[in-house]
Amino acid sequence: MIDFIRMNYKDKSEVESFICDSKNFEELRVVLEKHSGEIEYPYKTNFGSMEINITEKNIRVMNSLHKFYNQNNKKGYRNHNDFTYSQLTETISLLNNGIIKLEKARLSKLEFGLNIELDFPAEFIVRENIMMHKYQTHNHNKKFEGKGEFKQFDRSIYDFKIYDKAKQYSLSNNVLRIEIKHKCSKSINPHGIFNINDLTSKDSLQSLFENLMIRFEELTIIDNYKNNSAISEEVKKKIGVYTSYNHWESLKSSSNLRNKASKQKKEFNQLLVNNNLLKTKNMLRSKLTSKFQQLINN
Description:
The chain is an alpha+beta fold. Helices cover 39% and strands 26% of the residues.
């Protein structure tokens, strides 16, 4: 569920002295001005795999909670396996024991996502079935030097990512990752989340999941249809038009065209229903729901 987080202390006085105390952190990396011998910011240290940076203005703690848990439990610095609710709360408790006043550190970045297993390589879905989000094309399409497929849709306060998790870690099973990266507190706070301790609330995690599913429903995910002899050429041509983001961009310039776009979106969806081309999306929806219930209840 929860992966990368970033927390910021605005009032750093008490926390900075705690971090700079060698009894609490044995190693502290600083900038040394060679000629004057003066120590300058930033100061850097780690609590496990969590990075701690101290600047003149604030203190920032960040990294993947999932990887922190795995590394602390000798499972490697990875995040392809399940990360359950009980493991999340254990991780947060451990961080509270090692770093003071985490309730004062505001969350400013948060990744929430789910890994789901498939019966076939996830790269096929990312490459061939996921077409658009909000009728717009992806902003990034990374290949990871042959290690799978990755599509990311950039939005103002969040990014939406879908990628092949199995190839990223050379796994034997097929794993698809669907994730939202909340880029600011404005995207995080509506879910009742202000600091790391709020992530122990199942209601807040449920809200994050519901938000993920809203974004999922906004995806255009279509079964392979081009070689399907049961679908007429006329229907294939229409689908080809409706899966072109340029088509939808051309309908944004005036209110009349926007009304036309609304009607065409309904027609497009009905076209997919009538031709039974939503099996992949229905399967993914079911797996996402099952996975979240499994994680939140363990």
